[in-house]
Amino acid sequence: MKVAFLGPKATFTDLAVREMFPSFEAIPYMTIPDCLDAVMEEKTDLALVPVENALEGSVNITLDYLVHEMKLPIVGEITAPIKQHLLVHPNHKENWEDVEIIYSHSHAIAQCHKFLHSTFKGIPCENMTSTAAAAKYLLEHPDNKMAAIANDLAAKEYGLTIAKSNIHDFNFNHTRFIILAKDTFEITDTHLPQKGYKTTVMVTLPSDRSGALHQVLSAFAWRKLNLSKIESRPMKTGLGNYFFIIDIEGQMDDVLIPGAMAELEALGCGVEVLGSYPYFQIEKGSE
Ligand SMILES: O=C(O)C(=O)Cc1ccccc1
Fold it and tell me: What residues does the Prephenate dehydratase domain cover (predicted)?
């Protein structure tokens, strides 16, 4: 079995893959759309990509690509704790505070805003495709005064020094990753305990009807269906046009979720199931 992940080696996504699918062949891709394309083109059986971080919110490219470009079903979810460290090339370990630029994934930079503001005020931060891509870049440019924000595995993998550990602004820093397949896929091969089931639906509202979102939410509320997330994203058809991604606690073949969906359709909403899947949790991440 093959799984595509946001690479290169030693990203947080890689750590999640190692925990979730230790016996699979894990293949790194440089971007999230590349990972989804790999599944669509049947180069891999699965893709595992980040979708939401507790400090920074949704990974929009994942949601948007799934909704607008490529409808692959979500077949699983995994949550992992995230610890961010400041890495430098060993050549600069004594004078790490003199760095002139800091590289990382945009979410990692956002997770360390307070640290960056207090320690590196005025120093530019530049986005890379992943935290490990930033670490690898440092290794390839040993003379430049640069730092990367990444995990301890990236420090080991790319021979870098941890100049300052745990620089994320809040302790509860977790990321959710989703697992995508081309068709149905049952996750059996994992040692991680299953925490429950979720169903994710995409809902579009009938245009210009007052109270439409209220009616949508009440279809779930009176059935006592617990929603764990609701996110609005632009439809990309004009200002003010949004769709909603709603995560419901529970499995699709329960009577209640099909009932709620039928009620939404009767209200004139568009409803599409993006997946009904088990979710798992890693208790302890990389240090
Ligand atoms: O860049 C990485 O290492 C990723 O896997 C994406 C990411 C970035 C920041 C927090 C969690 C995941």
Answer: 2-182
Q: What is the pLDDT of residues 231-250, one digit of tens each?
A: 999 888 888 788 999 999 99
Are residue 66 and residue 177 in the same domain, yes or no?
A: yes
User: Is 33 within 8 Å of 65 (Cβ atoms)?
Assistant: yes
Rounded to whole angstroms, the Cα distance separating 107 from 101 reads: 17
Would 98 be classed as within a structural domain? yes
List pLDDT tens digits, range 106-136: 999 999 999 999 999 999 999 999 999 999 9
Distance CA 25, CA 2 (A): 5
Please give the residue range of the domain that contains residue 122.
85-164
What is the pTM (predicted TM-score) of this model?
Answer: 0.94
Q: Does the predicted interface ipTM exceed a cut of 0.90?
A: yes
* Ligand 1 atom with the shortest distance to the CA of 13: 5
Q: Is 12 in the pocket of ligand 1 (CB under 6 A)?
A: yes
Rounded-to-integer distance, Cα 196 and Cα 251, Å = 9
CATH of the domain at 260: 3.30.70.260
Any bridge partners for residue 230, and if so which? 246
Tell how far the Cα of 106 is from the centroid of ligand 1, in angstroms.
9
Could you tell me if the CB of 105 is within 6 A of ligand 1? yes
Q: Do residue 46 and residue 177 come from a single domain?
A: yes
Residue that is last in its domain, among 181, 209, 232: 181
Centre of ligand 1 from the C-alpha of residue 271, in Å: 30
Q: Is residue 284 part of a domain?
A: no
